[in-house]
Every structure is written in C-alpha cells, then in structure tokens.
Inverse folding.
C-alpha cells in the first residue's frame, strides 16, 4: 500500500500540472482502428469534406474544436458534452459560448461510425482526425494522427473558463497558458498560425482595435490610421453593439491554410490582441525570429505545425481502460 502510494506520488510529480491526470494507460498509436474499424479515417474524411464544401468556414471551426477540447482536461471530447444531470457543459463557458461551431458535423460522423462499428471509435479521436482533415483540405499539411483516445466521463466548465487563452491576454499569459499544457513557446507561435483561416466576432477583437495598448500598430509611417484599422472599425463599432459581426482572422487569404498569418502579424495586421502581442511584446526577439522564418518558408511552418498538432493531440489523453467510448458524443453512456 505504501509503495503504491509512493508510486502515485512520483507519478503525480512527473505529471505535475493543474488538471493533469495520472497517465497509466497505453500510449496512442497510428492506425489504431485498422482491425476494429478499418474505414474509420475514411468516414471522418468524407464527412469533413462534405461539411467544408457546404460551409468553407467549417474547416476552421472543426480545427478549433480539437484545440478547445485538448486544453481542458486533455483531448477527451469533454468539449462535446451537453449539460445533463451533473454535467455542466463546457459549451457554456466564456471562450466557447456563441462561438464554437461544428457540433452537428461531429454528430453526423459519430452516427455513421456507430452504424459501421458500434462503440469503437471515440469522440476524442473524431475531433483529432477532423482537425487534421480540415487543415489538409484547405491546403495545409497532412499528418498521421495518433489514435486510441477514450472519452471523458465529465466536463469542466470552470476549466474551460480557466485554461482556454483569451484574445486580450498578454504574451506572458499566453506562454503560461501553453506551458500549463506542456506546450512551449515554439508551439505557441506555430499553433497561433491556425489563425490563417476562420473568423472572429467583433466581441473578440474590439479591444484590439480601440484599446490604447494596440494603437501604435495601426499607424502607418505618416501616422495615419491604416486601412486595416478603418475596415475593422467599420465592422466593429466601439459601442457595445454588433458583438457578433465577423471578420476574417487572415485578411489576405481567409479560407486557405497557408503561412500568410505570419506575414500579417509582421505587418500589424493580426486580428486578435493575442496575435498582435506575439510581435509587440516579444522582448527577446525569439518569437519574431520564428515568425520571420515561417513567413518566408511555408514548408518549415507546415512541418512544425504538424508536429505541434501531434503534441497538442497528446495532452492528457485517456487510453486503455480509462474513460469510455461514448455512443453519442453529447452524453456519457448511461
Ligand atoms: C494562442 C492563443 C489563442 C487565442 C487567444 C485564441 C483565440 C481565438 C478567438 C478569440 C477566436 C475567435 C472566436 C470568436 O470570436 O468567435 C479564435 C478563432 C479561431 N481559433 Fe484561436 N486562439 C488561440 C489559439 C488557437 C489554436 C492553438 C488553434 C488551433 C490549434 C486555434 C484555432 C482557431 C480557429 C481555427 C479559429 C476560427 C474558428 C472559426 O472560424 O469557427 N486558435 N481563436
Ligand atoms: C479581457 O477581457 C475580459 C472580458 O471582456 C475582461 O474581463 C478582462 O479584464 C480583460 N483582460 C485584460 C487583460 O484586459
Ligand atoms: C456586447 O458585449 C458586451 C461585453 O460583454 C456587453 O456588455 C454588451 O451588452 C453586448 N452587447 C450586445 C448588443 O449584446
């Protein structure tokens, strides 16, 4: 008993973190469903393709779902749970409310998978695969997805409010948010490149275009406001209205997954405060060096992106006998 306790303590130390679990399950594996559900990856890809043809923004939305899943208790599909019984949905938390999209697409994928191979493919793996496919479909890199995640039996509303980074965070806070997840500065810069597609609400970038902290960025060399800022101000008035009017995160190529995000932020055209501070608050020059490297070499960005996504997809996963495979991604099995 004492030895077991000691072991647990050591494990707890090794995996020290705010909401980490003790990792005693087997590691994730490539082609995990090869025997049990050989068409799993194909089924996910087909659905993502159809969803993105119907609604191009869905690629971005699916990518973001995986991110918001992984940063709260790990990549365990906790984000997909609706409020029911004891569960308070993460969907209601500030960073997610009126913002996350793609749940119906995940439902459809799950439905098809349940027809083909019941209780076999986890909702957490669906999110990881859909994110990969979404990026690839919009012209980004493709990577092999490690699989075998299990789904959580709980959600964390408070965790969603606490661990998801905010668009008005300082660089220091963003670095800390990522560090808490075992992701480093390079991962932060690389994964911020996800903002090469998709949209944000006026609510998320109002501070960025009116707050004095960001003003300098928006002057041209003649001290005139840039066109960029004028456009954003017309989309998003300073008064509290129009919270939900949208602007593209990447103004130059809004629907493509490419390296233009990095050129944008170098030019002061990052949409969110969190994009802007990567440049304005980088006192060591380490980030700017990376941003230049990505802006001038898309292949370098793509390779780093793939490896940071694999790393993100590994955050606190449940495997083996941990967790469950949900029948319906919105509810735990009864
Ligand atoms: C660095 C910290 C980050 C912050 C502060 C942040 C914040 C945000 C915010 C505020 C939005 C707009 C939401 C809205 O207004 O409805 C957004 C959109 C988005 N984020 Fe991030 N994000 C971060 C990192 C990431 C990462 C790591 C990923 C993916 C791995 C990601 C993927 C996306 C995508 C794809 C969208 C567009 C979603 C859509 O159009 O539906 N973000 N993000
Ligand atoms: C960021 O925005 C939130 C919500 O609007 C606000 O409560 C918070 O004080 C802001 N934080 C900073 C650092 O400006
Ligand atoms: C927009 O968001 C702000 C900040 O949360 C809020 O005070 C305001 O009431 C919202 N406006 C509308 C029209 O919903």
């Amino acid at each position: 008993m004492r030895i077991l306790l000691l072991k647990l303590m050591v494990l707890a130390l090794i995996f020290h973190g705010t909401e980490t679990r003790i990792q005693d399950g087997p590691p994730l594996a490539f082609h995990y469903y090869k025997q049990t559900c050989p068409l799993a990856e194909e089924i996910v890809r087909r659905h993502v393709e159809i969803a993105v043809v119907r609604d191009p923004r869905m690629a971005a939305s699916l990518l973001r779902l995986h991110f918001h899943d992984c940063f709260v208790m790990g990549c365990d599909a906790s984000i997909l749970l609706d409020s029911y019984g004891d569960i308070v949905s993460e969907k209601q938390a500030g960073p997610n409310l009126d913002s996350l999209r793609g749940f119906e697409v995940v439902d459809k994928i799950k439905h098809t998978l349940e027809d083909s191979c019941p209780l076999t493919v986890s909702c957490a793996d669906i999110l990881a695969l859909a994110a990969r496919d979404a990026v690839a479909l919009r012209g980004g890199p493709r990577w092999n997805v490690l699989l075998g995640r299990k789904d959580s039996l709980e959600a964390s509303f408070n965790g969603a409010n606490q661990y998801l980074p905010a668009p008005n965070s300082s660089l220091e806070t963003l670095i800390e948010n990522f560090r808490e997840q075992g992701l480093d500065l390079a991962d932060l810069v690389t994964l911020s490149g996800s903002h090469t597609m998709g949209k944000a609400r006026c609510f998320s970038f109002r501070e960025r275009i009116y707050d004095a902290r960001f003003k300098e960025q928006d002057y041209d060399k003649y001290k005139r406001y840039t066109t960029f800022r004028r456009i954003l101000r017309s989309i998003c008035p300073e008064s509290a209205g129009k919270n939900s009017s949208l602007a593209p995160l990447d103004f130059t190529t809004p629907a493509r997954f490419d390296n233009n995000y990095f050129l944008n932020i170098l030019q002061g055209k990052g949409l969110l405060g969190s994009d802007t501070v990567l440049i304005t608050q980088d006192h060591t020059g380490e980030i700017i060096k990376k941003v230049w490297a990505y802006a001038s070499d898309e292949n370098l960005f793509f390779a780093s992106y793939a490896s940071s996504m694999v790393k993100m997809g590994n955050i606190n996963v449940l495997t083996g006998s941990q967790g469950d495979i949900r029948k319906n991604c919105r509810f735990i099995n009864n």
The radius of gyration is 20 Å.
